[in-house]
């Protein structure tokens, strides 16, 4: 498609107006305002379905509904953060502080993400490529996998199609800077360690669980379900030799995989570590109430032993209504447990639970705990170890007795890019995206034909300013074309919203930059194409067609 308008024209052409809402400032999960370095607000509408085609309407909902944390809260802890982080394109995380800490302290960590080879790699995929490469350059072990089993089972692609697309994904990853000697490239179908781990993980998952998470039903084939546990094995694969913080860069639609992988990692552990106040078990909400009662009564009577019955009386009669937001049923269950424990002293301790340890491992754990401890049938309470020290001790015992010792995988989430035609960027709509394989002149033409956040006329644009937060072309600057130059991204944004920049000239500049990017990228792809045979990855499957 082409746009024949002169970039210096005073009238805005229809393709230069915001014909459909793409990004709103309200969609910014971290803030309702653009970042001062010219960060983009994000894009469109998706439910959290890894194989779906819908979009996330309000990223803020992900914080409340799924427990994703705001990336801006951890940004200051990241050494020399990537521009996608600085501009709010990476908007959320799960436990990324562990990764940031490992980077700062020069300790081992890993980054992994996978690519389902169902079409050509495009600029949306480049976000994940960049995130893996950046973590590799910061000292992390980098893993990039071709999810060929998933492509075959979930999308029905033939092995010939998969081979062709896999080659293109690998070439683009290498051209963008992935170091294959320092990292690992693999195909799911060729990695026996991943498949063996998937078998073990499958013993900890069941159909009802997959049905609840992925909406599987009686028509879902077994291979599709098997591909899910294979992806769980991919996520945990970097920890097979040594448990380490591992980050998985994904779009928010992949969060169901992250949550399931964290659950399975926990289930595979021999031991669980939590905090407690008495010999009985309590959930997190009940422990919070018990802790409140203990702290209050200890301050009130510092020289007296606080007993369970005392805490029950406090919660039932003295605690101020609404002191903490807690359900009535939780309050009742907590009071009942404390009453039944009666005269038992309340005393903070760290509890190590036996989840699936062998008898030998449990005995070794008991022996390894120094200081005061209480041993029960299925757990050990330690009074001298911090929770962190107890977790490390439990992991060491597990590893010594043949367990995995997995740490819960971390994740970061980036916004979806808006399609050049407005709405969702889709591989099935060529005009909506730029393939990394597009002829550079075709990339130029697509940008010149793109929808923008411009006003109906140049006069209105100068008077009111453009709507950069709703502009797919501005996203190209913020996500890709401005590179690491925050000042340039901010300049484009400020000139647009200030009415100094008209859409024709802005698109012309973006189109030229896109053409240059594609030319450079494809030159590097060509260089790598001659060296693919040297890599330790088979891009020609020998599976039956």
- Report the portion of residues in β strands: 5-15%
* Outline: globular
Structural class: alpha/beta
Q: How does CATH name the architecture of the largest domain?
A: 3-Layer(aba) Sandwich
Number of beta-strand segments: 11
CATH topology of the largest domain: the name is Rossmann fold
Integer count of domains = 3
CATH class of the largest domain: Alpha Beta
Please give the order of strands in the largest beta sheet.
1-2-11-6-3-4-5
What is the assigned CATH homologous superfamily of the largest domain? HUPs
Low-confidence stretches: 1-37, 40-54
Per DSSP, the total helix count is 20
The major beta sheet can be summarized as: 7 strands, mixed
- Specify Rg, calculated over alpha carbons: 27 Å
Q: What is the rounded distance between the termini?
A: 37 Å
Average pLDDT over all residues = 87
Q: Portion of residues in helices?
A: 40-55%
Could you characterize the architecture of this molecule?
This protein has 545 residues and is α/β, with parallel strands linked by helices. It has 3 domains: 14-26 and 428-534, Tyrosyl-Transfer RNA Synthetase (Orthogonal Bundle); 31-269 and 408-414, HUPs (Rossmann fold, 3-Layer(aba) Sandwich), CATH 3.40.50; 272-400, no CATH class. The chain contains 20 helices and 11 strands. It has helices at 60-66, 83-86, 97-105, 123-137, 148-154, 159-175, 192-202, 207-214, 222-236, 255-267, 284-300, 308-318, 328-341, 359-368, 387-400, 440-448, 458-464, 472-481, 486-497, 503-529; strands spanning 69-70, 90-94, 110-115, 141-146, 184-187, 246-250, 271-276, 349-354, 373-375, 379-382, 410-414. The longest helix is centred in the C-terminal third of the chain and has 27 residues, at 503-529. The two termini are 37 Å apart.
